[in-house]
Amino acid sequence: MSSKARHKRSWLKPGLLALLLLITGGARDRLDQWITTTELPPIIREVSTEVRDRDGELLRVYTVENGRWRLAVNPDMVDQTYVEMLIAYEDKRFYSHPGVDPMAFVRAFGQAIWHGELVSGGSTLTMQVARLLENSGTGRLSGKLRQMRVALALERTLSKDQILQLYLEHAPFGGNLEGIRAASYAWFGKEPKRLTPAEAGLLVALPQAPEARRPDTSPESAATARNRVLARALKAGVVSQGDAHSALKEVLPNKRRAFPSVAPHMADRALQENPAAKRQDLTLHKSLQISLENLAKRTVRTLPDGVSVAIVVADHTTGEILSSIGSADYSANDARQGFIDMTQAFRSPGSTLKPLIYGMAFDRGLAHPQTLITDKPVSFGTYAPQNFDGAFRGDLIVSEALRQSLNIPVVLLLDALGPAHLLDALRKSHVPTKLPGNTPGLAVGLGGIGITPEGLTQLYAMIAGQGQAQRLHWRRGHANDKAQPVLSRSSAWQVGDILAGLAPPRGFQSRRLAYKTGTSYGHRDAWAVGFDGRHVATVWIGRPDGTPVPGAFGGELAAPVLFEIFQRIKPSQDALPPPPPETLLLSTAQLPKPLRRFAGRTAVFETAKDAPKLIFPPDGAKLLLENTDLTVKMRDGIGPFTWLANGMPVKTGERRRETQISGLDQGFSKLSVIDSKGRSASVTVWIE
Question: Which pathway does this chain act in (predicted)?
Answer without folding.
Answer: Cell wall biogenesis; peptidoglycan biosynthesis
